[in-house]
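Field reference: sequence -> structure
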Amino acid sequence: MKVIGIDPGITATGYGIVEDERCVCTGTIRSKKNNIHEKFIEICTKIKELIKENKPDFAALEKVFYHKNIQSLIRSSELRGAIIITLLQEKIKIVEYTPTQIKLTTTGNGRASKAQVRYFVERVFMFEKKKMSNHATDALSIAYTALRRMSRKL
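Structure field:
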């Protein structure tokens, strides 16, 4: 089973594709556009390209739960909606997990820190030598969570 994890962000959207607990690819989409709507188009276009190249069975997203800045929450939610529509147009099934579920699956502790999640992702996918953005790390942890939780249901 192949899963793409996506960590939507206006300035940086992380992605990670895992198959059989092996990292296929990971990275960060950083839009150079100034107009917010053009940023959405650029991010969604890149996600479409990743889907066409890698043909994932599922997409996994983190459920939005909290933001300090209401404007950031609104923009992130709009981007998340655009990504969901893109995934549905590409006929990709979507699963969603809370931050607690992701932390619990990756570290065994639902209240783990970002550093603990990063440590886990780097060790499981053997990225000691490759530098990843926090967004890419988050996306891989989301994809890994989907892979583990869905394989238990099969």
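Note: The beta strands are 2-7, 13-19, 22-29, 58-62, 93-97.
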